[in-house]
């Protein structure tokens, strides 16, 4: 038995027409005579012919494919986002492709340039592009941002309220008697990090805290030892890390140096990724609804692609909350 899938050429031969005529009959109804079109469609039905995705894309200009662009595919922070966008896109007939830009704005720009014409739109998570490039991109490709806004409301977005979570962390530490706290900052290109820094000074003034900003650091476990050493040098009693991976590295370094957590130094992370409750001591951290953010982002993009979405305006803002575990405790008596 021949299991070969029928081709457009097979349909043309069965209908007694040229391949170009068969293509027009199937992809552009009304361009040829009704009798010839009916003959071609009848041949396609008898042979069980289905146009390929690439053929449909050529005829319609749509690929039914959406790119999810993330700075680091190995960071568990994005796992929930991938699940949320993937599930919602599947429900609406789209295929998701995952693009890793390795924390590089240039790699992100190159990837997006290469994707034009191959995807219908893109969801940009924690984009490292500057404002000008984001605005230009939004004028060339339907995009939705996660944890980033586009100036002028040029694209819809979903924002995680991590500044509120950082304030909750500072309030928690103040309630435990801490007065000297460090913030281990994330990458210079991180929009989310800049928003968190903006709330540090007013929150510290209100709570009577002295907050020192350390870094910037890569949002990686391997950057944690440097942040831990800097916190000890600064003689603080608590450290709030940009993300959980950085906090994991901090905990490892403090253990290696014989510094008890939280007796000598309390540590707070951000993201509540897988493993935050498995490290020792279990990590106090800010929890973010990433899967929910992914579903919202996919809904916004699908609505935009279908022409049913409202004009871009204020982003959808999702709340965050502090999860208190064993890595924070009362300030040491000195």
Structure at a glance:
The chain is an alpha/beta fold and 334 residues long.
Q: Which architecture of the largest domain per CATH?
A: 3-Layer(aba) Sandwich
Radius of gyration: 26 Å
Supply the CATH superfamily name of the largest domain.
Response regulator
Cα separation of the termini:
84 Å
Q: Structural class given helices, strands, pairing?
A: alpha/beta
Number of helices: 12
Give the H and E element order.
HHHHEHEHEHEEHEHEHEHEEHEE
What share of the residues does DSSP label as strand, in percent? 15-25%
Classify the oligomer. Answer: single chain
Any low-confidence stretches, pLDDT <50, length ≥5? Answer: none
CATH T-level fold name of the largest domain = Rossmann fold
Helix content: 40-55%
Can you put this structure into words, describing what you see?
- There is one protein chain.
- The model has no long low-confidence stretch (mean pLDDT 91).
- Helix content is 43%, strand content 16%.
- With 334 residues, the chain is of the alpha/beta class.
- It is built from twelve helices and twelve strands.
- It has helices spanning 8-15, 19-27, 34-47, 53-60, 79-91, 105-115, 131-140, 162-175, 191-207, 224-233, 244-256, 290-306; strands at residues 65-70, 95-100, 121-125, 143-146, 157-160, 180-184, 210-214, 238-241, 266-271, 284-287, 316-318, 321-323.
- It has three domains: 8-60, lambda repressor-like DNA-binding domains (434 Repressor (Amino-terminal Domain), Orthogonal Bundle), CATH 1.10.260.40; 65-160 and 290-316, Rossmann fold; 162-288, Response regulator (Rossmann fold, 3-Layer(aba) Sandwich).
- Strands 2-1-3-4-5-11 form a six-stranded parallel β-sheet, with helices on both faces. Strands 7-6-8-9-10-12 form a six-stranded mixed β-sheet, with helices on both faces.
- Strand 6 (180-184), helix 9 (191-207) and strand 7 form a beta-alpha-beta unit.
- Helix 2 crosses helix 3 (34-47).
